[in-house]
Hints:
Elements lengths: L7 E5 L17 H10 L4 E3 L10 H9 L4 E9 L8 H17 L4 E6 L18 H22 L2 E4 L10 H9 L7 E5 H6 L4 H7 L4 E6 L1 E2 L1 H9 L4 H6 L3 E2 L8 H10 L4 E5 L11 H14 L3
Parallel strand pairs: 1-2, 1-10, 2-3, 3-4, 4-5, 5-6, 6-7, 7-10
Antiparallel strand pairs: 8-9
Helix pairs in contact: 3-4, 7-10
Amino acid sequence: MPPVLDRIRVGSAPDSWGVWFPDDPQQVPWQRFLDEVAEAGYSWIELGPYGYLPTDPARLTDEVARRGLKVSAGTVFCGLHRGPAEWDGTWEQVRRVAALARATGARHLVVIPSFWRDDRTARILEPSELTREQWAHLTKGMERLGHEVGETYGLDVVVHPHADTHIDTEEHVERFLDSTDSELVNLCLDTGHYAYCGGDSVKLIETYGERIGYLHLKQVDPEILAEVTANGVPFGPAVARGVMCEPPGGVPELEPVLAAAQRLGVELFAIVEQDMYPCEPDRPLPIAARTRRFLRSCGA
């Protein structure tokens, strides 16, 4: 019998349906996403890019509830490492997403650092390494964001290490955690992105368990990863090549990750995100259903 992972709350996200943008003809309509994520057996969803799902709180709450779903988090991107001048633009984005997340009953805001190279064209936008001053801007800015979001909207900010951003590798993730206050900001550990950048999710959970506030579950195909790494392929084209693959066919193994998360003794969301942009509209549902069955076989 698999272990009972009774502290892990499994969900999925628009990302697993090939949704990266508020509006894109290559993406499935939002009604189809909601119908299919419920059909696949999930109870929780994230909002995805702001504007993809309805932004009227009453309508969204109704659409989600009548499918038996609940919202776990909203998501924003930000470039706070650039300094105080970024704050107003960041807060305007955060304000809209956090208000909608709170109105639908969510408790988290997932914050992703901005990309240092374009995820479609590979054009270098900024150096891949931050200066000491930029690290200070990043960490203090995230702490301020955590404080303001908590005070204003009652949400917990969890920062998402992500490929092609400045918080990606084990070194960068640990530096971020060591430089920030756990009362203000914690981590959304994405198992796929962390493996993509060479990190060990189980080790991170066991070392920084008190800082793990949220999980994204995904795997990478090690052969495709080796190819894109060797050739300097940016994240977007790497996804189009299938670098993020259906569990349990990639790395890291999710059973040990989930077991380590369970041992923390706290309730954690574990949201499935299989990056698949772009993808054929009929592809996501069978994968999502198989992934849900796999996670149940792990005890989640």
